[in-house]
Write a structure and sequence with these properties.
The complex is a heterodimer of chains A (829) and B (132).
Chain A (H helix, E strand, L loop, with lengths): L1 E5 L2 E5 L5 H7 L23 E4 L6 E3 L10 E3 L3 H17 L14 H8 L23 E3 L9 H8 L7 E3 L6 E3 L13 H5 L5 E3 L12 E6 L8 E7 L2 E6 L13 H5 L14 E4 L2 E4 L2 H17 L5 E5 L5 H15 L4 E2 L7 H11 L9 H5 L2 E5 L3 H4 L1 H13 L3 E6 L12 E4 L5 H14 L13 H8 L4 H8 L3 H13 L3 E6 L9 H13 L9 E5 L5 H6 L11 H10 L4 E5 L3 H4 L3 H10 L2 E6 L11 E4 L8 E5 L3 E5 L12 H13 L7 H11 L8 H4 L4 E2 L23 E6 L13 H6 L4 E4 L1 H7 L6 E5 L4 E8 L7 E5 L17 E6 L1
Parallel strand pairs in A: 1-5, 15-16, 15-22, 17-18, 17-20, 18-19, 20-21, 22-23, 23-24, 28-32, 29-31
Antiparallel strand pairs in A: 1-2, 3-4, 3-5, 6-9, 7-8, 10-11, 11-12, 13-14, 13-24, 25-26, 26-27, 28-33, 30-31, 30-33
Helix pairs in contact in A: 7-22, 8-22, 8-23, 9-17, 13-15, 13-16, 13-17, 15-16, 19-21
Chain B lengths: L1 H14 L24 E3 L1 E2 L2 E2 L6 H5 L5 E7 L5 E9 L8 H5 L5 E3 L14 E2 L1 H4 L4
Antiparallel strand pairs in B: 1-6, 2-3, 4-5, 5-7
Classes of the chains: A alpha/beta (829), B alpha+beta (132).
Subcellular location (chain B): Cell membrane
Pfam families (chain B): Fer4
Keywords (chain B): 4Fe-4S, Cell membrane, Iron, Iron-sulfur, Membrane, Metal-binding, NAD, Oxidoreductase, Quinone, Repeat, Translocase, Ubiquinone
């Protein structure tokens, strides 16, 4: 610790602090334009000049100068104020004074400082810049005339996002922030640059001219796309969510968001939202009153209850709040006496609800998000961890670049994570993950690298015996990696002081189920890398509340039908009533033909959704519900973080929250009084679900809480499913596109601007062999059907492997993929 | 007792030889002072409203009678797609004119604002445009 004096105040700070950090700790504000707490110090703007007595009154930048013992710092002398005024005058020399039409006005650092330092005139004169404004990309407007060269955009894009879209170009007075060949911006559009821009040089196009900063009501909430659980601030005006607002003090991610989080909010006030209940009359869905629609549902459910509850089933989306999911489960368990409840097609949660449950004794990951940066070695299964959870991808980027974490990626294709410094990507044949992970475990046992605690864990001998079949030499050929590479990876993993395994889950990854989760768990348990900081296995649930759905038992827990069985039941008549809350099986579950046939056949289909989705169009009753911005509740995210969502706007149209609907139906069926509000339900969750014990809604506050994990380790030997190869065909792997999450992001304008339709991605050699170019349509044919998709040619795919995202309703990839980890397809023009 | 009465009558009598104060409105028109704060007008320059929809007038308005919605024109510039003043709420304080950074708003000498229907008191952009 170092002691120093700032403006006559004694401050004690760590020795790696800068004067700026020390002043902040002492509550003294030093003005800055180019500094950001997430980025390396830059020292470019000269606003933070301070005087240090020991340096003979010289003015030095506070943001780049480390503290020394006994330093005496003055932050506000007349000379400093003069110097800062001059800095502002020089900046305003070129900066256009177009505050009336600039969206940054009100939230502009330059404007605020100009006001604060009373810069009313300018001693200098010059012409303004005449740079061309980039209107060409759909999401980020770049007006380099307003730029003050703080370099934050270039630095955040490089340091945190690791994309590197910007850099300074040209010299002297002509210097500006430029893109590749100074063309229009073409990046992954996470908008991090927009969020840190201190002026209006970078602004969000979807929000352009929509409202002024000071007119927005700022409501803190949690993003409703992926499972990362990013906190965000919604900018609300006149009961409309107009934008998301950057707050660098929010969450583990310091306000960082991805494309969908930052630019995908438009689904909330979309024109396509359902505003009134619909009831099927004479074959078509007609608007109806709530009494009529709910009356029909309640009558049918009462009938089902009397019939014993065996013929009713429910599929709920893990996008609902914990309270709603709890009520959904309770409606079936207590209200109807049925256990036919599931979510995420049954397999996208199996890694947690079956895999982790058996291997670690609980449905949660034995690691948290904080462990990513605390680790020494990250073993990431699939480069898609970046696509499914971009903000966790930023954490990985930061870990690798700042903390020198050794990144190893096991994947069937390369990806953005492969490009990180020193990252090693082991590109294996599709669907071979389990065999490969078993081989790693085998090497650890064969070379005696296991932890001393491993032999004491249940199932050790059985595992040891079973793993003999997975010696690297035996599986190398099938995996497409050589035995030595596998051995080196196993040794590096075992020898790392702290190592964390990351496994993304989701509807696009049918192979990431129970078996893979357990194979990875075995690996972590063998090496004793569980339950310690920077160690463990982090299962990344796909949706915002996937972890909550697993915790609250939203899957058959007493021998009921799972998603697959429910849909089969609809087909064969054993399920007569199906309630679908927010799920869109027609597009997101495997085998579209089968699902459509099942939903067409079921006697009574109730769909609760925001939109008239492909599934809702088949329903007998459609109930319009509220988005996350219209309700209160909690979400549980990756790494067991429970956080509150807060209502920002009134429900759109006549929509009611799933909570209100389920609460009413439950009370009607059981005859008990309905719950008063979400707090009452959360209290019941805290009382009945062990992991949530002791939590209260009020106690969660703005930051939320991390659920405790009790680990009861057990080895479960898993067999690798054989992947039948078909020669002459391409291996199609499905997954998530970076800009989308599930099927809801299709209703957010931002993601649709950058990625409007499905595609099939293949490597250059394959494209050349097929004689197709980027953007051309090809016919992709599997045993289940055929599909016309546009071609995307990329360097990341290995030869013979093609990738297609699953989010899109038209030409949906589930019409050719039926739930196998790998689908063999032929591609023709 | 009688004297005050006579004094009063004297004033009345004297007024009979003075120019009458009463204005025979509407036949006679009053002289409106130049800085009178009457109906607002949006100034026009180069055949379009000067207003850039900066929202400062609705922000400063103490009566909350101004509604602005910005739009983006073909040249990507900001303009007021909607500009309305609810004269039933307006207190004619003139803060909006003072706040305007581009001198796009003025208050005219127009004071005859009576109307038959409430909705007619809401002046939309077309009605507010300066008449030349």
């Amino acid at each position: 610790m170092v002691n120093l004096t700032i403006d006559d105040k004694q401050v004690t700070v760590p020795k790696d602090a800068t004067i700026y950090d020390a002043a902040k700790a002492a509550g003294i504000r030093i003005p800055i334009l180019c500094h950001d707490k997430k980025l390396h110090p830059f020292g470019g703007c000269r606003m933070c000049l301070v005087e240090v007595e020991q340096m003979k009154g010289r003015q030095i930048p506070a943001c780049t100068t480390p503290v020394t013992e006994g330093m005496i710092v003055r932050t506000m002398t007349d000379e400093i104020i003069q110097a800062r005024k001059m800095v502002l005058e020089l900046l305003l020399l070129k900066h256009p004074i177009d505050c009336p039409v600039c969206d940054a006005a009100g939230d502009c650092d330059l404007q605020n400082l100009t006001y604060e330092y009373k810069v009313n005139g300018n001693r200098f004169q010059d012409e303004k810049f005449q740079h061309k404004i980039d209107y060409e990309n759909p999401l980020i407007e770049r007006d380099m005339n307003r730029c003050i060269h703080c370099g934050k955009c270039a630095r955040i894009c490089d340091e945190i996002v690791s994309f590197g879209a910007y850099t300074f170009i040209n010299r002297g007075i002509e210097a500006k922030i430029g893109t590749e060949f100074d063309g229009p911006l073409n990046c992954e559009f996470c908008g991090s640059c927009v969020s840190v821009c201190p002026v209006g040089a970078l602004i969000s196009r979807p929000f352009k001219f929509k409202a002024r900063w000071w007119a927005l009501n700022k409501v803190k909430s949690v993003c409703s796309y992926c499972g990362t659980g990013c906190q965000l601030t919604l900018g609300v005006k006149d009961d409309k969510v107009l934008t998301t607002i950057y707050d660098e003090n929010q969450g583990f991610h310091n306000g960082q968001l991805c494309t969908r989080g930052r630019f995908g909010y438009q689904f909330i006030n979309s024109d396509k939202r359902l505003t009134t209940p619909l009831v099927r009359k004479n074959g078509s869905l007609q608007p109806a009153t709530w009494d009529e629609a709910l009356g029909l549902v309640a009558a049918k459910l009462a009938e089902e209850k009397n019939a014993g509850g065996k013929t009713v089933a429910g599929l709920a989306t893990p996008r609902l709040t914990n309270e709603e999911l709890f009520l959904f489960k309770k409606l079936f368990r207590d209200g109807l006496g049925s256990d036919n409840v599931d979510h995420s097609a049954g397999y996208a949660h199996a890694a947690l609800t079956a895999g982790a449950a058996e291997s670690f004794g609980g449905t949660a990951s034995p690691a948290t998000v904080a462990d990513i940066q605390a680790s020494n070695l990250l073993l990431v299964v699939k480069t898609d961890a970046y696509e499914t959870h971009p903000v966790l991808g930023f954490e990985i980027n930061l870990g690798v670049k700042r903390k020198d974490i050794d990144l190893r990626v096991l994947s069937d294709k390369r990806g953005k994570l492969s490009k990180l410094p020193k990252a090693v990507t082991y590109v294996h044949k599709p669907g071979q993950e389990v065999a490969l992970v078993n081989a790693l475990a085998q090497v650890i046992l064969a070379e005696n690298l296991q932890d001393a605690t491993a032999s004491g864990i249940d199932g050790f001998d059985a595992l040891k015996q079973q793993l003999d079949a997975f010696a690297p030499e035996k599986v190398a050929a099938a995996c497409g990696l050589d035995a030595d590479t596998i051995k080196t990876l196993a040794r590096d993993y075992a020898k790392a002081a702290k190592a964390l395994i990351i496994l993304p889950l989701g509807l696009g990854y049918p192979g990431h189920g129970k078996a893979l989760a357990q194979a990875l768990a075995n690996l972590a348990l063998l090496t004793g890398k569980v339950g310690k900081e920077g160690c463990g296995v982090l299962y990344l649930g796909e949706k915002n509340n996937s972890q909550g759905a697993a915790d609250l038992g939203l899957f058959p827990t007493a021998g009921g039908a799972d998603a697959d069985a429910i849909l089969a039941g609809c087909q064969n008549g054993s399920i007569k009533t199906l309630i679908v809350a927010g799920e869109n099986p027609v597009v997101s579950y495997p085998d579209r033909k089968k699902i459509e046939a099942a939903l067409d056949k079921v006697e009574f289909l109730v769909v609760q959704d925001l939109f008239l989705t492909e599934t809702a169009a088949k329903a007998h009753v459609v109930l319009p519900v509220c988005s996350f911005a219209e309700k209160n509740g909690t979400y549980t995210s990756v790494g067991r973080a429970v956080q509150r969502v807060n209502q920002a706007i009134k429900p759109v149209g006549d929509a009611r929250s799933d909570f209100a609907i389920l609460n009413g139906l439950l009370a009607g069926l059981t005859g008990n009084a309905p719950y008063a509000d979400t707090t009452a339900v959360f209290a019941e969750i805290a009382a009945t679900v062990p992991a949530y014990a002791g939590l209260t809604m009020a106690g969660l506050g703005e930051t939320g809480a991390i659920l405790p994990a009790t680990i009861k380790p057990r080895f479960v030997a898993v067999e690798a499913a054989a992947i039948p190869a078909e020669s002459g065909k391409f291996a199609l792997v499905t997954g998530s596109a970076l800009y989308h999450c599930g099927t809801m992001s299709r209703f957010g304008e931002g993601p649709m601007y950058v990625c409007p339709e499905g595609y099939v991605e293949l490597c250059r050699d394959d494209a050349q062999a097929l004689n197709v170019k980027e953007g051309e349509a090809v016919v992709v044919k599997s045993a289940a059907g055929e599909l016309k998709l546009k071609v995307k040619v990329g360097a990341r795919m290995p030869q013979g492997v093609v990738f297609a995202p699953y989010h899109f309703g038209e030409a949906s990839v589930n019409s050719i993929a039926v739930g196998a980890p790998v689908t063999w397809v032929s591609i023709s023009k | 007792m009688i004297m005050p009465l006579l004094q009063g009558l004297k004033i009345t009598f004297l007024h009979m030889f003075k120019k009458p104060v009463t204005l025979q409105y509407p036949k006679e028109r009053p002289v409106v002072v130049p800085n009178y704060r009457g109906l607002h007008a949006l100034k026009v320059s180069h055949e379009q409203a000067k207003c850039v929809a900066c929202y400062l007038c609705p922000t400063v308005c103490p009566a909350k009678c101004i509604t602005v919605e910005a739009g983006e024109d073909a040249k990507h510039d900001k303009y007021a797609a909607r500009y309305e003043i609810d004269l039933l709420r307006c207190i004619f304080c003139g803060y909006c004119v003072e706040a305007c950074p581009v001198d796009a708003l003025k208050m005219t000498q127009e004071f005859e604002l009576a109307n038959y229907k409430r909705e007619d008191f809401v002046f939309v952009k077309e009605r507010l445009l300066e008449k030349k």
